[in-house]
Amino acid sequence: MAKIKTSYFCQSCGFEAAKWLGKCPSCLQWNTFVEEVVEKKPSGTPDWKSDTAENKGRVNKPNLIDAIQYSEQERLLTPDKEFNRVLGGGIVGGSLVLIGGEPGIGKSTLMLQLAVTLVGLKVLYVSGEESEAQIKLRAERLYPAKEKINPAKSDCYILTETATQNIFKQIEQLKPNIVIIDSIQTLHSAHIESTPGSVSQVRECTAELLRFAKESGTPVFLIGHITKDGMIAGPKILEHMVDTVLQFEGDRHHVYRILRAIKNRFGPAAELGIYEMQGNGLREVSNPSEILLSQRDEPLSGVTISATMEGMRPMLIETQALVSTSPYGTPQRSATGFDTKRMNMLLAVLEKRCGFKLGTKDVFLNIAGGIKVEDPSIDLGLAVAIISSHEDMPISYKTCFAAEIGLSGEIRAVTRIEQRISEAQKLGFEQIFISHYNKKGLDLSKYHIQIKTVSKIEQVFNLLFG
Ligand code: TYD
Ligand code: MG
Asked: What protein residues have CB closer than 5 angstroms to ion ligand 2?
């Protein structure tokens, strides 16, 4: 009987070992090794044109950097402006883009919407998850008959197939301008024995698609699932192989979705696009600040507004805090859209530096709109919201905040302060609190919004609560 070759793979980083290991030597995770059947590709098996005549014996020679000729990367602009921005100005030919996100967040919707709106381009949408009829139904839901963009008119082909060799066969016949794969975890390559979604399968299928993208110059989009701890399922190695990693995130129960560039070889990372999930698909949100601020006439206690940056864009975000006496011995601390560890740090600073007794209180924090904020400039706004709720003293809704708080209660400077101030001014705020250290080089006379510079957290509370 022929011996089956197996190997052990770390499901977290893709590290390969000959025997089972408790701890991965590469990513130091425990209990991540799984045995997989691997069949090394027999030599001579044609892959994506890897053995064609023009590739055989091709050797790259070193070139003098000055002598290298290049043409300005031509970018394909999609009708979706948010998507173009996240990609750094449109789709680059031959690029491999991974779109990650939790199940049900809208990855398939986003890509199908892209596929049917790219009029004049041949798009191949390969689905291993849904049937043709399901996809057609979704497309019809996206664009009701009365709208201009009709899926029936677009040059979008649907293929339900999971074997990469068959997909390449179809690609060769159809010659699409763009290929979308939904999802990489459902694909399998005949060169590898292990099941679809396993580390070695995902890696091999991605490698084949990468070769195809680079050799044919066709952009390929891969949809990838995210595991419960927020990693793109399958190996981390996937992120190294692709050119761009986009993450689609948001709270499933809220309407807003954020498309974030985590890695981008063709543009700035940290760029992001905002969408609203409606009954008929995703709509671009071009002015996020206005939507994220809830409409109200009277100031409420525990609510403040922070001028944060999301990617390259300033965004005013409402933060809400609720501080109440804990009915149980152990107080509850919970934060939605914000790191709980950072919240605990803020609470410790408020207790130690400002003498607020919060140790026996329940504290709840919430970022309005169901979005996640990592920008530390939200610290000051959150601290003020906590104290505002604790003291039951509302803050004027014409005031906003943009500063980080350090462990000793100092107010620290944040990046791109001018953009934040301009955005606050544009939206009609009358006052903004920033760090004293941000004042350097800032032309205060340029703005008609009142700029309060502070260096200690106590100073802020004296100014606000007297
Ligand atoms: P889907 O694109 O299937 O998510 P993913 O591919 O990331 O798993 O989107 C799933 C959710 O989006 C589903 O719960 C229904 C909702 N949805 C809308 O609200 N409006 C729409 O027009 C569509 C197509 C989906
Ligand atoms: Mg899907």
From this structure: 108
